[in-house]
Structures are given as structure tokens and as C-alpha cells.
Amino acid sequence: MRSIQRVDPTAWARLGLFVAVFLVFSWRDDRFFTTNNVFTIFEGFAFLGLAALAVGVTIIAGELDLSVGSAAAVAGIISVSVVEKIGLIPTVLLATLIGIAYGSFQGYLIYRLRIQSLVFTLGTLIGLRGLAFIISGENTVVMRDLEIARTVRRQLWIFSPFSLVTLACFVGVALFLINTRFGREIYAIGGGRQEATAAGVPLVRPLVMAFALSGALAAVTGALTSIKSGSAGPAAFETLLLPAATAALIGGVSLLGGRGSVFGIAIGALTLRFINSGLSLGGAPFYILTLATGIVLIVAVVLELLIGRPELRARWRRWRREPGLGLRPRHQPAG
Amino acid sequence: MNSSEPYLRVDALSKAFGSIQALDRADFEVGHGEVMALVGENGAGKSTLVKILAGMYPPDSGRIRLGGSDVQFGGSTQSEHAGIAVVQQELSLVPSLSIADNVFLGDTRRGWRTRPGALARAAAPYLEQVGLTELDPRVPVEHLSVAERQLIEVARLLARDARVVIFDEPTAALADREIQRVKTVVRSLREQRRSIIYVTHRLDEVFDLADRVTVFRDGRSSAPTATGGLTLDQLISMMLGGTLEGLFPERATAPGTTVLHIQNLMTDNVTEPVNLEVRRGEIVGLAGQLGSGASDVLRAVAGHQPRVSGTVAVSGRTVPPTSPSAAIRCGIGYSSSDRKRDGLFLQRSVVENLTSPSLDHVTTAGWLRPRAERSMSDRIAETFTIDRLRLGSVAGALSGGNQQKIAVGKWTGHPLEVLLIDEPTRGVDVGARAEIYRHLRNIAEQGTAIVIATSDSQEILGLADTVVAYFKGAQVSVRRRTDTDSLLLTREITHPQEAA
Amino acid sequence: MGSASTSIDSAAWSWRQASVPLAVVGAVAGLALVGWLTTPEFVTYRNVQSIVRSAALIGIIAVTMTGITMAGSFFSLSVSQTAAMAAIGFAAFMSWGWPVWLSVLVTFGIAAAVGAVQGGAVALGGNPIVVTLAVGAVLFGTGAWLTDNKTVRTGTDAADWIGTSRPLGIPTQTWTFILITALAATVLARTRFGRELTLVGANRLAAAASGLRPGKITLYVFTVSSLGAALAGIFTAAQFGQGRLDQFDGADIDSIAAILVGGAAIQGGEGSAPRTAVGAVFIAGLQNLMVLRGFSFGVRILFVGLAILVSVSAFTVLRNRRQMT
User: Fold this and answer.
1) Exposure class string for A275-292: b at 16+ Cβ within 10 A, else e
2) Pick among B87, B90, B105 to test the A interface (most A CBs inside 10 A)
3) Which of B108, B221, B90 is nearest to B161 (CA)?
4) C181 by DSSP, 3-state: which?
5) Other Cβ atoms within 10 Å of A325 Cβ, number
6) Prediction ipTM score
7) What's the CA angle centered on A150, arms A146 and A151, to 5 degrees?
8) What is the per-residue pLDDT across A221-241, written as a single tens digit (0 to 9) for each?
9) In whole angstroms, how large is the CA radius of gyration of chain C?
10) Which residues lie across from B480 on neighbouring strands?
11) How many helices (H) and strands (E) does chain C have?
12) C292 at the A interface (CB within 8 A)?
């Protein structure tokens, strides 16, 4: 067998960053590695990870869903309003179904109108925010019975039902993306849309599925986060996109599409969580967290430019032009 | 030939694109376990036939019979289900996906489960059939060479159990060693009694691989001929049509001083250093098939691809290899073979297109001078016979011929020393071709040096004063127009060993 | 290529080319008509003036951002933070007793640097959405850190005239909005810079092949957009005598909405400053009408979202149809 690396070499760099961040904060603060703090990190991971997964799936498909924050807000309000009547599990299922329906419809329209998802989801970003205000009557919706909220955030060692659901979502999405044709097609249209279409992939299916996944994950994020806190505000999740995209990108999802893995997104979300929770333990105010997230994102972008792109560009050039090993130009002595 | 009735049979197929009759009642056939070569000059209708068989175009009239019954393809999926598959020139592999993923990508008959291990095991036999046993099927395709990717395309077709496999110029971009791999695969497909259609420009491969050959010329087909009793000269004369009388303008004045010096130029796809001198008023034609290196020389001179070594000078002034704008400042204009990609602003007006390389000449202190712009584009429009009423409409709305006139004409807005044109008449109908030839001759008469690169030998012979032949990255010959003819040139760009 | 068919063609094409501007004008006319029929006080001089006034700041940001969209770099998601930062900076400089001109100059200088950094990163191949998202977060974090997330007051009325005076009875913000729109329209249509910008957006590869400078253009458009946001920030700081971090929340989305409703092509190469200005006024007018009709906040946002969805879908369909045949 010819030895070619199957794993992207920058994956090791990402894993290294993850370990380094972990070590720095656990060394600086002995509270960092307590059961309670790990529990807190996983709680934050649950929230951030689901959103990162939602954004990540559409980026892998070569698109971008800006509307995840507004979709999460609508799902949160609906969930908090109905959870006391129909119970916890039916509520989460309902939110998921609504998310899938919304996402599929959005994906289908993007396919049908041949419109850039960036533009279209900007419209839904605003429209759904309006919907959130309408259905909440412009007020924060609260649950009277906080027992359900406590159920969601009950600590089971370092986990909670919330973070366990998140882990299940990660495993489920990973299996879907790796082990089904539909998942491979999402990668295919992101990695080379023309090539994939030429190979016979119908564009509509992976597009709809990517957006359906994104909608469902955003809805679950909104539902569980809101139920957990016992309330849902119409203006919630407005800044969800920044940490979600950051986690996905430092997790190795490429903006060029077609590259990235669920495992990478999990690592990215955990890395960002470590940074944030390390800073919080140090007493930093919330805006320092935003600053840190921004800096991490800039570092990710610069790294992709410095390391990833020249390599990708060279790869691309080889792909386009290299006629094979025997035809490399022979360098002639100048004369 | 060992089959009484051909497996695939095409009768009197016709297809027109606007004013261009691409196929004119063409016949074609290929039997079980047969390799049928399909040859012809550019624009002879080969690729139109391939695209109709692949279900990408519907024919205007005619009949396709497959395995003894009539078929009609409403789209590429139907053609694929009928067992016809094309190994495209432009590959349909997704670079970031694994080999196994790509082998089964878009295959509707497979189930929905794609566990990587199982997929790799399922792909292995097909990879073995195309001789790629040394590759791990889980490696992303982007790490592979062009030939390996081509073979993976074949493996995909085998996985879909294609009975008719069409190779569309598979070796154009390959090195010798890799061509052998493709040939081996073609032979083993024949062993499996599949029908193979082999489209090529390289005539040695016709004799090497094919049982029979069909020649296309101007949309018409010759009767299939067994390669056994055929000589190279006979084949070439079957390909060459009558000369296109009146299509090419006469030359009036003699060339002047040398303006473009190319010394020891090396670049991607060029295997031997290129030396070339071009004089004022002269049209030099670089003849060569896809992958011959002819267009790479133009690109390197124009700053569109990096030079490995060598110097380029215009009127004694060295042209920096850095960027297109450096070349433009030295008086070089370059029109690529893909005008939609980097030649035109399709959604902008014709005027804006025509003045785009000459903005310095229509601005004062950063302000555009609409009058100067208008008169510059009027002048170009007049020279190139572009309808002046359409100067305001967007370039994308014009016909292919008019678009090509814009892509070339835009370089004449300001004083120009050297004009480089890759495929001057691609996708252009005959009427517009004659006009473009006339305009190019006029530009040359006014003292510009012109270099064209094309795979159309008629075009070279009709237009060029000096003919340079390229084959597999090397300059084969430099001859005056009067010292060569179509037979010699076609040999040199398809089969130089015998021509030498 | 008969001449008869050619002339028919060109007439058809020019009709199609005008479809986007016509749609924008039609939308405004439709809004005015609906307002006039349903709500008498909508189409009065006073109300129109107040619509334009409320559109002014977003309009300034949107018109200056139009260059980014036309040059093919989508949008900037950092303008709201840039504007807030400019407001805070200006207020701080004034509170330190700096003269107005110096405060304005230094604010613009910082904004230009911030814009140039983003433009440079995009020119080198960075994704504009991500680059500006990241820079926006850094600006927000830095601003909050420097001000301890508190309101910064100018503590002087020396700059009040910038935000509150009304030459000829029209507020300075409105004047500036109109002037900047006219200036941007002139630059885009009449200067080499505007032409290069449009061509770079229409086809980056063809622009480079024609000897134009895509990288430089990208750098400039982000700088200009940053300056426009800073201008809006200075106006606000001068008007209220203070700068606050959340003063411009949502301004980036609103200005992008104005650009899209104005019919700029998201792929670049097509768009116009006046149309973006009309887009801003359209959204402000829609909001105003809904306020007059007593619609709730949520319904108003929902309708703005729908207006964007409908307009971008319509423009995309119009353009796709134009590119076919």
C-alpha cells in the first residue's frame, strides 16, 4: 500500500491546542479539574456544541445558516410554553420536528430559487426573530413548575440529561454523516458541487438534509437551554452565531466546504469552553469572553490563511494542472 | 471483429446548435468486446455524439439502438441505467472525499449505508480491475495523480456495471507511463466483452488500441474501418476536410523587426525550454493538442502562470514574470481559451468590457471620461464589427462570436505590442470565425505581433505566417507557413515520431 | 445574426436589465400607495422627513457598505461594533478636552485602520463574513474592557451641533445621508475607482487578467465602510453627548437588509448607492407605517424579515432568468 496520510495533518495541531488550553487552565487553577467544574464545562459544551454542530453541518455542505440563533429562540419560547402541558420528552421531540420542518423548507427554497444561503438565511434570521417576539408577546416566557428545569440540569456525576442528549446528538450526527449515503452527499456537494452533480448526486437532497439537520439542532439547543433555565426570552441567542462558528472553525471545519468532522467540532467546542470557563473562574467579565472568542476566531482564520490555504492552493493547482509524475518540468541549466 | 450485430448502433443522428450543424446524419456503431476509436478535427462533432450518448443533449433527429432495441435518453441518469458511461475530460470526483466514497458517489442502486470499512471493501474489486491495488480506498482523492483519478472514474463506471464505456480523450493530460496504465485498463475491459468508445487526438493510440476507427468530419461520419489495413497517412487524409476557402485573409505586408523574444522559457506542462521570436506584423501559430504545452507558453508569457526559468522581452524590455498587469504594462495582451472564466465581465456592459484593460487611457486624475470611453469602444466596435447599438447591453447577452470579438478586441483599446490568443475561435460559428481571422490580420498589419495557440490545424495553416508544433510539452518544429502542409502538421502534433 | 433579430434582442435585453431598478422603485411606490390609502398621516411632508431622518444613520452605514457588496466581498458584520467604538472613542476624546476636529480626525483614523486590517485579511483570502465577525467580537470586547462596559460621556456641549443642528430645517444626519449617497453614486459611476470596484466584483479573475488590482480594491472598500460606520458613531455620540457599546446593536443586520432590498447582487458587480439609500428608506418607511398602524414590535420585525426574503428571492429569480437564454 502506498502510504498516504488519511488524517489531515492540521488535526494534530487542533488536538494539541485543545490539550494545551486544558493544561494551562487546569494548572493555573486547581478548581478547574473538580467534578463540579467539569460538569459546568460539559453544560456549556452542551449549549455551544449543539449550535456549533448546527452551523458546522451547513458549512460542510458549502453553505452557511445564519438563522440558527433566531430559530433557537423560537424553539425555546415554544418549548417553555408547552412543556408543562405535554411533558419534557414530547416537548423536545416537538421542537425537533418543528426544526426539521423549518430547515427542510428553508433548504428546499434555497435549492429551488438558486439563491445564496447567506442572503436567504439573513432574511429568516430577522423574520424568525420577529416571530419570537410575536409568540412570546414581547415578554420573557417563564415556567411555573421549575421541577422540569431541575430534571434537565440534574447533575449525574459530570453529566446532566442536557449534556447526555448533546452527546447523543453528536454520536447520531456523526453516524449519519459517516455511515449513510445522505451524509456523504452533504460532504460531496460541499467539497465539489459540480463534480458531485456530474457524478449523479441530486443537489436537492443533501441541501435539504443539511438545512434540516441545522434547523433540528438549533431547535434542540433552544428548547433544552430554555427549559433548563426555566424561561425563554424573545431576544435570546442573538449572539449565538459567533461562538458557534468559532467552535466549528477551530474544530477544523473549512469554509471552503466539504471538510470537517463531528469529532473536530466537538473538540473545537470543548476548546472554546475550556477557554471561557478558565477565564470565568479567573473572574473575567462576560465581555472578556467575547474578546477571547474573537481572538481565537482571528487566530483560526489567520492559521487557515497561513497554513491551510497555501497548501490547499498548491493542491488545487496540482489537481488542475499537474499532468502526472513523469511530466514535471526538467530544470534546464541557464544558458 | 467477432460479433454479428453491433451492441450500440446510431443511425442518422443530427444535432444543431443555433447556426452550427454539429452532427449531420451521423452513423456510429460499436460491438461487444470491441474498442472503437472516434477521431476527427476539433468541431467535427465527436463531443456532441458523446454528450448525446451520455444523455446530456437530446438529438434533433436520428435513432439510437442498444442491444437490439430503440432507446431514448431523457437525461444522464437514464443513459447511465441503460449502461452507457463516460470517462469525462473534466473529472467528476470530489477531491476531499475518499476513493471509496467517490467510487460509489451518486450510485442510485446501492443502499443508503456507507460504513467506511465496508465501502472500502466493496470498492476494492473495482479498483483491482483498473490496476489500482496499491491504494488505500480510504485516502482522499486529492492526493492522487491525474491518471489515478481517471482510473478511479473508470472504477466507478465498473461499479455501475456500464456496458458501453466512453473514454473522452483520456490521455490528453497524461505522461507516457500513465498512458500505459489507461491502455491496460482499456484492454482488460475489452476482455470482459464491454463495448468501448475511445475518443482521441493521438493517432498512435488508434493503431495501438482500437479494433476499428470511425472518422468524423464536419458533423458527418465515415464508415467504420478496421485499423489493421489502414496506414497513418490514410487516416490523416480521412480526418482533413477540404480547405476552408475564403475563410482566411491574405497577407499584405512583410513582417518587421522582432518585438517578442522568448528565451529558454520553462513552465508547468512544458518539458523542454522554449525559444521563440516574433516580429511586428507577424502571426505565429502554436499548434498542439490539449496538454501539449502550447497554451502554457502563452499563459507564462502573459503572467498568468509562473515561469520556472527563462526570460521574456518585448522590444528589448524584460517582462517581469509576476502578474498579468506587469505584462500588460509591457504591451502584452492575452485572451484565454475560457473567456467566461477570466476574459469577460458577463453581467457588465460591452463598453465596460472593452475599456477594462485601458482604464488609464480613459481617465483623468481618477475621473472617467465618458466621451473618451465611448470613442474608444466605438473604435473597437468598428474594427471588430460589433453592433454599436449593443454597446450598452450586458456582454452575457451577446452571441459566442460577439463575445469572442470583445475578449480579443478589448486589447486593442490602447497601443499594443504583442497579442496572445489561446483558441481564437472556440465556440464561434463559421461566419464569425472568418471575421475574427480578418480582424486579427488587420491588427497584425498595423504592426502588432500576434501569437495564437490552437488545436485546430486548419486555423493555424490558414492564419499563421510561422507555424510552431507542440507535442507533449516540447516544441517539435518551427516552420514557415510555406514549408508545411496539413498532413505534415497533423502528424507533428499527433504522432511526431513518424513525422520526423 | 440578422439585424432585425439583433434589434429585437437588444430591446428585450435592456428591458430585462432595467428589471431590478424598476422592482426597487416599484416596491417604494407600492409602499407609498398602501400607506396613502390606509394611513392618511403616512404621506405627509413631516412624516416623510421623519422617515428619512430615522433612515439616515443606517443609511450612511449601508451606503458606505455597498462598496463591499459590489466588490464581491459580501458584507461586513463588524459595522455596529465599529460605530459603537467610534462613538465611545469620540466621547472619550471630547471628555479629555480635545478640540472637536482632533477628536473627529483621530476617530476616523482608528476606524480607517480597523477597516484596512479587515480589508487586508479578506484580500489575502480570508472569508469576509468570518473575518468581520471575529473583528467585531474583538472590537466589542476591547471596547467593553477599556470602558469597563460603562457609558462614556462627552462632558461638554462643544460637539452637540454635529448631532442636533438643523440647517434649513433638516437635521445634519439627513443632510449627510443625502450627500454621502450622492458622493457614493458619483464615485461608483464616474471614477476609475468605482469602475474597478464594479469590475472586480463582476469577475475577480477577469479583473486581474485586465490588469486591475482586486486586492487593493478590497482593502479600500472595507476602509470606506469602516469610515462610514465611524461617521454614524460620531453623529450619535455628538447628539446624545455619550457613547455606549450597545448603541448600535443590530445596525449591521439593518444595513445589510437595506443593501439587499436595494437590489445589489450578492455575488458582486452590480448595485448602486442610491438604490441602497432607497432600501434604507423603504425599511424605515415600512417600520414607520407599521408603527402608525399600531403593529407590535414582533410583527414589525417579522415584516422586515419577510420584505428581505421576498426582495432577495425576487432579485435572484430576475437575475437567474436574465442569465439564461
Assistant:
1) bbbbbbeeeeeebbbbbb
2) B105
3) B108
4) helix
5) 12
6) 0.84
7) 115
8) 999 999 998 899 999 898 888
9) 21
10) B466
11) 14, 2
12) no
